[in-house]
Amino acid sequence: MTESPFAIQNDWTVRLETPRLVLRRWREEDVAPMAAVNADPEVMRWIRDGSVRDEQQTRGGIQTWESEWESQGFGLFAVELRSTGELAGFTGLSVPEFLPEVLPAVEVGWRLGRSHWGQGLATEAAAAAVRFGFEERGLERIVSITQVGNDASERITTKLGMHLVRETVNPTCGRRVRVFELSSDQYVATTR
């Protein structure tokens, strides 16, 4: 029997719960449903150059996300619905290496399947990830990078208490992006 590539040596117990969601580490059975999310052109419209991803690319992405947990102590969570156990997508924290001008930084990101849009789930999940970053990992600031025109994601950044700090170009795809930021001091001031 071979060991799953998602078997984690430490910090496996990182699990966050919100009223409607469970944010947890990745499992083998998450690959196919996440690949379905990544294969939807409407979901991927605002991700890098808008290209969809297949199951092999999704598997590689999940393996990378899991290795980031090991090296950085944070990463992208699988997001599942508490009521059904269905995988909705992901949220979490990563280093935005694709945009060197903002480094050092940690970015909060999210991607949910289209059937989960418009219900406040991305905001609920991202807020839990931000709380984890500040309260459990002691981060000083968290950014969010959205493509210009992605109004839905910009609304989420506003709900998270972030403010616009710059507009620039993503060098990996040439698309314009906006960088939003929230400092730990601002976070503490809004949670009192």
From TrEMBL:
One of its GO terms (molecular function) is acyltransferase activity, transferring groups other than amino-acyl groups. Coiled coil: none annotated. It comes from the Bacteria. It holds the Pfam family Acetyltransf_3. GO terms for biological process: signal transduction. Residues 1-28 form the Ras-associating domain. Residues 21-187 form the N-acetyltransferase domain. InterPro entries: Acyl_CoA_acyltransferase (IPR016181), GNAT_dom (IPR000182), N-acetyltransferase (IPR051531), RA_dom (IPR000159). This is N-acetyltransferase. It comes from Streptomyces naganishii JCM 4654.
